[in-house]
Amino acid sequence: MSRSRGGTPATTALDRAGVTHRVHEFGSDASESDLGYGRAAAAALGVDEDRVFKTLLVSTIGAIESTGSQRPANLGPHAVAIVPVSTQLSLKAMAVALGAKKAEMLAPDEAERVTGYVVGGISPFGQRPATRGVRPTVIDESCSKHSTIFVSAGKRGLDLEISPFDLVALLEAVVAPIATTR
């Protein structure tokens, strides 16, 4: 387990939970790169893009009744999607995974307001509290192909390496096919 020095709300949350993880720091000049933050992180870390996951925020519209699926019990107005940086989020698949009629991407400034993090550094851990408890989270099923994956540690240039199974358990996430290839 890594104890984070100073840290971010994300690293603090993992330290408190006692979850094994590693913190990786790298140059945060990805905003000037054509790669984007996540793909630049994969390059800087020297790992395959399929192991680096980005955290996206969506709003949900028209929640439908649960049909006994893994649908999060506490569906609020916002949800978190976690997909490999080598892919894009399928909003249709995200809505299905949440049991909602529709899901729409949040604007970057809205995602920053909701999570308390800046774009390029939004972590699935340590976000500002949701108004209705735990923010529903869905992670792409491809996470289970890896013993560890990388997600943002809460600021640009800082990633967490964590078991996808620990990530799912700690976030009470649903695992579903929500990514599409570019």
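Above is the first protein from milestone M3; the second protein from the same milestone is given next.
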Amino acid sequence: MHINILAVLAATLVPIVMGFIWYNPKTLGGAWMREAGVTREMMQGKSMALVFVLSFVFSFMLAFAMQMIVIHQVHFASMLMHHQQELKDTTQGLGATYKDIMDKYGNEFRTFKHGALHGFMASVFVILPVIAINAMFERKSWKYIWISWGYWAISFLVMGGIISCWP
């Protein structure tokens, strides 16, 4: 399996663009700030450049990991990672079997819709519990939890779709 760095970079931009929309004061930004206990003054300052740089780095990490969540072929290839030498000869043995399977099923489930489904499922079963557990211990409201998870649900949905459909 190869890594499509362009797809990963495109997916990296999704949380950043989505954040500008979702957390804009004209959408859910005002409600999120109230629920998070954050003021405009706290959001401004010299450290915002670092916040955006680190947000890009973390978004890249999420986009990179999204391949393992939405592309089934990555799972198959990972089972054979210790057999690289055998895979080189595609005319016989394991190499021939791998080639046959990838020729037949290599593009199965590689659609935006399928990737979006897996991205959304990851947001439900990974992101929502993480946000909810932290928020409950921080004594944040359920409104805060739903606003925060909603952002990640849409971001993961779109990221998964991009990663899956762009071979």
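Note on the second protein: Residues 112-137 form the longest helix (26 residues).
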